[in-house]
Amino acid sequence: EADIYQTPRYLVIGTGKKITLECSQTMGHDKMYWYQQDPGMELHLIHYSYGVNSTEKGDLSSESTVSRIRTEHFPLTLESARPSHTSQYLCASRVQGPYNEQFFGPGTRLTVL
Amino acid sequence: AQSVTQPDIHITVSEGASLELRCNYSYGATPYLFWYVQSPGQGLQLLLKYFSGDTLVQGIKGFEAEFKRSQSSFNLRKPSVHWSDAAEYFCAVGSTGANNLFFGTGTRLTVIP
User: Fold this and answer.
1) Interface membership of B52 toward A (CB under 8 Å)
2) Which residues of B, range 59-98, sit inside 8 Å of A by Cβ?
3) Out of A48, A90, A98, whose CB is closest to B43?
4) Across the strands, what pairs with A100?
5) CB contacts, 8 Å: A48 with chain B
6) Is the pLDDT of residue A98 over 90?
7) How far apart are CA A107 and CA B16, in angstroms?
8) Whole-angstrom distance, CA of residue A99 vs CA of residue B4
9) Residue B53, C-beta contacts closer than 8 angstroms, at least 6 positions apart
10) Is A4 a residue whose pLDDT tops 90?
11) How confident is the model at residue B54 (pLDDT cuts 50, 70, 90)?
12) How would you classify the pairing of strands B10-14 and B107-112?
């Protein structure tokens, strides 16, 4: 079944730890995105990719990094987590073509103590 | 600059009552408009979208939305709300070739018996 997956769904971790949030999609989409979502706020784009070996920073500055070695996989890494990184992280992908419809994963809720 | 405004942070309606969620956008190019719904702990699910043509669009779960260019609005409606409609609703705007979607801050819908 074509879908978009995120793991872990919930993560509680201490300050200074390195973490990787996983995102995979089985829809064959070239374009993938990472958003940060906080309560009462709009979704903010932090990274996007147009395809393999393509990564760009989004509108919201983030200390995280991403990689795109395979079409279906777009992991996000925080080298040293801080409490300010506590948030919900949503991964999305988009079908190729002129339209911008995005499909979202279930999200990872990260808490940094 | 692109922006999306959802003026209602929280709306409470009785089950069976009609619903209208407001969305206003500011976008220089021809906009593509979307409504997404997010249940607690979940990602965003597409309800409906407008690209061109008929300004009244039908979506899933009995929702519809009307694009009014003169008012820069894309309000979401449902004639009879069900308890399962309680969720957060996000309006978003994009255009051809845009890197990403711009989201509103969301409207939280509570449905009372």
Assistant:
1) no
2) 90, 94-98
3) A90
4) none
5) 99-100
6) no
7) 31
8) 18
9) none
10) yes
11) confident
12) parallel
User: Residue A41 in contact with residue A90, Cβ under 8 Å?
Assistant: no
Q: What does the block give as tokens for A57?
A: 């920073």
Residue A63 to residue B4: CA distance in whole angstroms: 26
Residues of A in contact with B9 (CB under 8 A): 40
From chain A, pick out residues whose CB is under 8 angstroms from the CB of B45: 104
Q: Are B103 and B4 in contact (CB under 8 A)?
A: yes
Q: Is B23 on the interface with A (CB under 8 A)?
A: no
Q: What is the mean pLDDT of residues B23-37?
A: 88
B90/A98 Cβ within 8 A: no
pLDDT at B42: 85
**What are the pLDDT digits (tens) for A20-59?**
999 999 998 999 999 999 988 888 999 999 999 999 998 7
Rounded-to-integer distance, Cα A76 and Cα A108, Å: 11
Neighbours of B39 (CB within 10 A): 14
**Chain segment B60-95, per-residue pLDDT in tens:** 999 999 999 999 999 999 999 999 999 999 999 987
**Is A42–B106 a contact, with Cβ atoms under 8 angstroms apart?**
yes
Strand partners, B58: B64
pLDDT of residue B96: 65
Closest to A104 (Cβ–Cβ): which among B43, B98, B104?
A: B43
**Residue A92 pLDDT greater than 70, yes or no:** yes
Which residue has tokens 């003026």?
B7
